[in-house]
Amino acid sequence: MLDRTYLRENPDEVREALDNRGADVDLDEILELDERWRELKARGDELRHERNEITSKIGKLVAENKEEEREAAIQESRELKAEIEDVESEADEIREELNQRMLEIPNVPHESVPLGVDERHNVEDRRWGFDDLRDVPEDVTPHYELGEEMDIIDEERAAKVTGSGFYFLKGDGARLEHALIQFMLDVHREQGYVDIFPPIPIKSASMRGTGQLPKFADDAYRLGGSNEEEYDEEDLWLCPTAEVPVTNMYANDILLQDDLPLKHQAYTPNFRREAGEHGTETRGIVRVHQFNKVELVNFVEPENSYDRLEELLREAEEVLRRLELPYRVLELCTGDLGFKATKQIDLEVWAPADDMEDGPEQGGRWLEVSTASNFEDFQARRSGLRYRPERHESAEYLHTLNASGLAIPRVMVAILEYYQNEDGTVTIPEPLRPYMGGQELIEGHEKVGEAALGAGERE
Predict the structure, then answer these.
(1) Per the annotation, does 243 bind a ligand?
(2) Are residues 151 and 40 in the same domain?
(3) Domain residue limits at 47
(4) Is 274 annotated as contributing to ligand binding?
(5) Could you say which residues bind ATP here (predicted)?
(6) Any binding-site annotation on 65?
(7) Cys-Cys link to 381, which of 1, 61, 72, 458 (CB 3.0-4.6 A)?
(8) 280 a known binding residue?
(9) Does pTM top 0.70 for this prediction?
């Protein structure tokens, strides 16, 4: 949430930011609400001052035994009280509407963010790992076909159990996922992160605090109610990203300067309704409704947040470097910037199987596995996250940042395709082997059931 004083004093800057983002927000209407609220607030203060003066006057009139004047003053006080109640009631209604409308305004992009309409205008910063590529098969089998052949990914049975957009991992597929989770946690623990294992159901207030509500209500999984129904502060949602519970751990708290920077990491399963359209780009486990992720959440002093953003990016990159997975770094333009962020940098890993128009010259496609984001004080204002620079000083809003470290299904895709061998096996990256009992290859498993014999489904 933006500071109302900032909005009031810099309307043209905010308008330009909205235009650059392509955001459809009626800023003039919000400013008019703010102006009306301030008028009512001032009027209420005036009326209370008048009533206080009359109250003092009534006491003097009683002492002077001026009964008729006292009754007139009492009547005037009652009328002022009724007017104050009317003014304050209207002010409260407008304040509530204003607060809701303020939630519609996205964050203002940092001056360093490149201008652009959409992802086509994102700026590639650098690539890593392409100078020394391993030999991959001439025709790499896409992960969704390989996973089915090896019987390590089963989308069909997951659709039967839960629905489309979900999947089973079996055998070495499940072991590889567990290995990735533990490996990432260990890497980030080396970088000074404190482990958090958060609850998965999250209150509406927490979802709003980090910016998921009301903007992305349709994308979330709500518990005990329809997404179309009104929700209150106590309603629960399935975790869309560990950013939400971890950031809100400190909602309405005051941290100390000595606590910062505070670095937490959390593994969670994540749930999102938006899973994209059917097609090559979304087949398999690239875009699904449930996925595992290790999230990195940072709380920092405002003056350090952009230096921390660069460090956060390097911390996420370290996972890809140790796994020796080729990737690129992209700066997101204003039109592709997330609602909450002032600046975002993407890590996109190379998956060599499916050739896409925007893929690298080596073929294949890019898969976003992390977005390092600086929110400045946007989330802090929503959640009441503050820190005290010195114990004797007033509390100030801190800055929050996060990044995935990393989105595990897409890293799985990259491994299954980049580490694929001519004989159809997959070499397990060396850093993951200790987590898989020293195993070096994924060779797949024999399928089970009549379907494995081509007999079709049981009647």
Answers:
(1) yes
(2) no
(3) 4-103
(4) yes
(5) 272-274, 288-291
(6) no
(7) 1
(8) no
(9) yes
